[in-house]
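Anyone? Bumping this.
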Amino acid sequence: MLSSPFITRPLTVDRIMLRVLYALLPGITLYVWYFGPAILVSIALAVTAALATEALMLKLRDRPVRPFLADYSALLTGVLIALSIPPLAPWWLPVVGTAFAIAVAKHLYGGLGSNPFNPAMIGYAVLIISFPQEMTQWLSPQGMGHSVLTYGDQLRYVFSGVLPVGMQLDALTMSTPLDTMKTQLHLGMPMSDIRDLPIYGRLAGKGSEMVAAGFALGGIYLLIARIIPWQLPLAFLGTLFALSGIFNLIDPAHYAPPLFHWFSGAAMIGAFFILTDPITSPTTAKGRIAFGIGAGLLTFLIRAYGGFPDGVAFATILMNMCVPLIDAWTQPRIFGKKKGSER
Amino acid sequence: MITALWIMIALAALLGMILGYASIRFRVEGNPLAEKIDAVLPQTQCGQCGYPGCKPYAEAIAKGEADINLCPPGGEEGIHKLAELLGVEFKPFGENAQPKPKAVAFIDEQTCIGCTLCIQACPVDAISGAAKQMHTIIAAECTGCELCVPPCPVDCISMVPIEEQLTNWKWRYPVFKLRQTS
Amino acid sequence: MTRLHSFHGGIHPLTHKKESTQSPIISAPLPAQLIVPFRQHAGDAAKPVVQVGERVLKGQLIGEPVGMISSSIHAPTSGTITAIELQQIAHPSALPDLCATLVPDGLDEWGVRQPLNYRQLSSDELQKHLRRCGIVGLGGAAFPSDMKLSHPVVVDTLVINGAECEPYITCDDMLMRERAEGIVRGIEILRHALGTDSVLIGIEDNKPQAIAAMQRAVDDSSHPFKVVTVPTLYPGGSAKHLIKVLTGVEVPSGKLPTDVGVQCFNVATAYAAHRAVEHGEPLVSRVVTVTGNVEQPRNYEALIGTPFSDLVALSVAKPDTNRYIMGGPMMGVELPAVNVPLVKASNCVIAASDALFPPPPAPMPCIRCTRCAQVCPVELQPQDLFWFAQSHNFGKAQEFDLFDCIECGACAYVCPSSIPLVQYYRYAKSEIRARDLEKRAADLARERHEFRQFRIEREKQEKAERLAQKERAAAEAKAAAATVIATPVDPTADADDTQQMRIDAALARAKEQAAAATPKNTEALTPEQRAEIEAIEARRAHIHELAADAGADDEPPKHSQGN
C-alpha cells in the first residue's frame, strides 16, 4: 500500500531542466547575433552526442531509457559543453567532449544524481587538456573579422575543415579576451593599453560581454523562478568581484577590474548554470555560500596566476570535490534542537 | 648521521615505553572481541551453530575457530554485521543452515504429560511447569530455538511462526511497479 | 494582538475546503450494524467487558482501559453485541484487529448519564472522568486526553488547535462554526483541569466564519481566551508548530509541550470534553468530513463504528472512484476496504480517483535539489535521510534526526523526482523500532541463559555438598564408634590401638577435606555469586552447628568451619 502524501506538486525534474534550458536562450540568441550561427551547429552536434551516449549508457546499465532521456539532463549537459568550446571547432570536438562527459563523468559514477563532478565541466576540462589547439580558435565577433562566413561556409568548415578560397583561419579567429589579456600582460603591456585593443568592448570582450549579459539575464530569471538557490551565484560573483576589486585597486596596471572578470569567460554562465547544478553542489545554505566563495577564489587565482586563461571549469571541479565535506560541516540546526547540540 | 640515529633510537624507546605502559594501564579484562560478537548474535541459544550457546560461538569466532555464517536465527543481516565487525567478507549460509521465519514454541496442553524434559532443555527458562503438571511456554521469553522439541516424548511441542500483527507490523521498503491503467 | 512567530518551510497545497463547507453538519442515520474496534487510541487496546449476545445501552462501557496509556470504548447506540472478533480496520497494514459488532435496536436508548459540575472537580477527578468517557485527541493522533492533563510540571499556556491545516478536511471548521459555545465550555473545563490562565485558540485565516463564531462564543462566555488568526500554511496544525507560531516557544526535540509549560488540545477534543463532563456523554460519535470525488461533499455527525461505506453512500461517490483515504491527502491512510469502520481518529474520508489524485510517476533519482529541505518544517535534510533509508543505513539516519520527522509529507509533495520520501522514512523508523525490540529480547535471552547456567552450576555444587555431608556423617559415626571403644581403655595400655585410631581419624579428616575442596568451582564466579554461595554455606554451617550441639560433644571444632 502506498504511503501518504497522495498529492504532489507538478514541478518535476524534466520541467526544472526545461526551465534552465529556456533561461539559456537569451545568451544563445546574443551568441548567434554576435558570432554567427556556427554555435547552433555545435549545440546540435553536442546534443545529439549527449542523447545518443545517454541512451547507450542506460541500455548498458540496464536502466529504462525513455524516462531518463525525457528528463533533459543529458540535453542540458550537451548544450553547456557546446557553449564552452569554440563554435568553429571541428565537429568531433563537441561530440568527443559530450560523449566523455555523459559516459564517464555521469554514468560511470552512477548516473543522474550520483555523479560527484559536473559532467559538462569534466567534458570541457578533457577537451582543453587534450586539444588545446582546437579549443582556442574562437570566432571574432561580427564586424571585426575581415569578412563573415556564411552559414554554409561555417557548416562546411566544421565538417570538412575547408574554408572558402582566399580566407585564412587566423583572420577569422582570435584568442579569448581573457587569453589575450594574459598574453599581453605577460609581454609587459599595461592594463590600460590592453583594454584599448580592438577586441575589447565596454566591459570586457566585444560581443562576448553581451553574451555573458544574456546568460546573466537568464540566471536572474532562474533566481526569480526559484529554480536555483541564490546563495551560489551571489557568493561566487561577490567573491570574484571583491577579490578582483581589491587587486585592481592596489595594482590597476596588472589586474583587470571586477566587471571585466564578471563579463569575461565563463563567469556568468558558471555562476548561474554550472555551479548551480544541484547534484554537484552542497545542499545546505551555508554550504552553498562556502562553495560559491571557494569557486570565486579559485577562479580568480587561476585567472590571475594560473596557466589557463579561464578558471571557472577547474574551480568548479575542485570545489565539487569538497562538497561532501562542506555538507558535513554545515548541517543546520533542526526544529527543537539547540545549535551545536550533539547529534 | 649519528645524531639522527640516536634520535630515532630514543624515539623508538620512548614510544615503546608509552605503548608498554598503555597496555598495562588500559588492559581490558576478558575478551572484548568475543563480547562484541556476542552482542551481535541473536541469543536464541539454539546451538544450530554447533556450539552450546551464543557465547561459546562468539568465543569460537573470536579465536578464529568458527565461521561467521553458522547462525541461521541471525539471518543474512547477522552475517553482514559480523562481517563488518570483523572486517571480513560476507559469506552466504551453507546448504544446511538456512534461516527460518521467527517462531515460538507452543505446548499442546491436552497431550502434555508433565515430564519436565522440555523444561530441562530450555536454555532461557521460558517453560513453566513442574513434574506431573502441565507445562506452558512463556511466549515473551521464548527465543524459538527449538531445543525443547526433540526431548518431548509425546511430541506435544510445535513451533508456531510469529504472525504479523498490528503491533509488530512494519512499513515496507518502497517498491514500484508501473501502475496498470485499467 | 498576539505577536505571531513563524517556522521554517511549509507548503501551500490547494485547500479544497470550500466543497464540504457549503451545507451544515447533518446526523448520519443509524447504520445496520456498527463495528467498534477496541484499539481506537494511542497505547494499549481496551479489554472487552461485554459478552456476545448481550444487550447494551448507548454509552455503555464495552471496553475498559488496560495499562497507563489506554482509553475506554463505549457502545455507540443501544442494541445487541453479535460478535467480538478480528475484523479489518482502517490501517495501512490491512491487518485485522479486535472489534465488537453491534446490531442497533433502533431505539438509541441512552444508559445512565451523569452530568458533572467541573468546578467542583479536582484535576485528578476530571482526568478519571475523561478516561472513563473515552476522550482521546480527535485531531488524528487519538492520544488519550486524560494523559495530557496529568502534568508533573506547571502548564502556563493552553493552546487550542483549530488550525486544521490539511487540505480537504473541514470537520473542525464546521464544528467551530456551529458549536462554538460547546467548544468554549470544553476549553474552560480543560483550562480548569490544567490550572492555567492563558488560553490561545489558533485558527488558520482560511476559516473566517469559524474565527468569527469562536470569537463570538468567547465574548459571550466572558472567559479571557484569545482567538488568534494564524496564516494558512501546511503543516501549521502540527501541535509543535502551532505552539511555535502562537507563543514563539520551540518544544525541544524528544520532549513534550508540557516540558516548556504549554499543552495543546484540538477543538473537537475540547467539545468532546464538554459533552463528557457537562452532559455525561462518553465519546460515541464525531464529526467527519466526506469529500473528494463525491456528489455531495459535506460533514456528518456519525457514530463511532459506522462503516465508511455507509457515509460514502450518503454523499454518493462518483463512478470513477477507485480508492478511499482516511484523513487528509497529506498524512492520511488509504483504506484497505471501504467497509472498515469509522474510529475516533477519523476526521475525514476522501473518495479518490486517478483524476483527482493522479498516481505518482515512477520515481527518478534524487538530484539533491533540496526543495524538500526548503519546505521541511523540522529543518531536517530530507535528501540525506532518504539516502540513508534507501541504503538501509539506519544508524546514520538516526544520527541525522530521523525520529524528529513528523511525516507531514511536505518533502514528498515538492519532490521533483517523485520519490515517496515519507514511505522511506516510515520504513526506516519501523525497522529501527523492530531492531530495538529484537535487541531488547536478545538481551533478555542472554540474561536468562546466563542465569540458567549459573543456576545449573549452583545445583551441581549443592548436590556435591550434600554428598560430602553424607560422607562426613558416615566418617563421624565411625569416629564416634572408635571413641566409644577407646575411652574405657587406658591410654598407655595399648599403644598400637591408639596408633590405629589416630590413623583412622586422619584418614577421615583427609577424606572430608578432599570432599569439601572438590566441588568448589567458585574461582570463575562474580563477587555477587560468591556472596550468595557464601550465604548459603553459612546457613548450612549453622545447621551443622546446631546438629553438633544437639549431638555428640566430642565433635571436632573444625567441622563447623564448613568453608
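Late reply, but here is one note on the structure posted above: Chain B touches chain C at residues 38, 41-45, 53-55, 123-126, 141, 143, 164-166, 168-174, 176, 178-179 (CB under 8 Å).
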